[in-house]
Amino acid sequence: xxxxxxxxxxxxxxxxxxxxxxxxxxxxxxxxxxxxxxxxxxxxxxxxxxxxxxxxxxxxxxxxxxxxxxxxxxxxxxxxxxxxxxxxxxxxxxxxxxxxxxxxxxxxxxxxxxxxxxxxxxxxxxxxxxxxxxxxxxxxxxxxxxxxxxxxxxxxxxxxxxxxxxxxxxxxxxxxxxxxxxxxxxxxxxxxxxxxxxxxxxxxxxxxxxxxxxxxxxxxxxxxx
Length: 225
Ligand SMILES: [Zn+2]
Ligand SMILES: [Zn+2]
Prior knowledge:
Blueprint: E1 3-4, E2 11-12, H1 19-39, H2 67-73, H3 75-92, H4 104-116, H5 119-125, H6 129-147, H7 152-159, E3 161-165, E4 179-182, E5 189-190, E6 197-198, H8 203-208
Helix pairs in contact: 1-4, 1-6, 2-3, 3-4, 3-6
């Protein structure tokens, strides 16, 4: 029996999502809390610029909020969609229903994380994986069309996708720790800092050696102290 990746439809030997789509979906889930936060800056109509740029116009009367932004930020928006998937996953694994925090922003964080840390099981064992991955991708697109009207695929071509930290040991014995980015169509990941190249056969090793938490001591070291 042949399997197809539920997102990109390439042939798989087993499971429901290919490694690339599993990774992309995990990264989308990890970005969700940030996207939810960033959306707050786009609630007012006409607020299309960077949330960091000064846009206060005190002379103007308060305007109604942008409805699509409000919908995404409401309890049934990003939070509700992620929670529905989390509840469905837990039900299918015979786990109890998840506890839901009160704060909507916290709900986004908790539900996204609960799905992200279960992506291995979702990709290998859950028939709904493809459907979930589609919906998460659509959700990210909805947010990005508001906060970053540039096509997310174009953006990935230019800036790449952040996939982790370089684990190469430098001549001085320090770990490089620079951020590694993947570019569409390029199977080799090349560290821009130390030029170490990672082939697909190195991905597993790379992943296993990632620092468990964002580790400030692994930040790129310019070499002068
Ligand atoms: Zn795929
Ligand atoms: Zn490096």
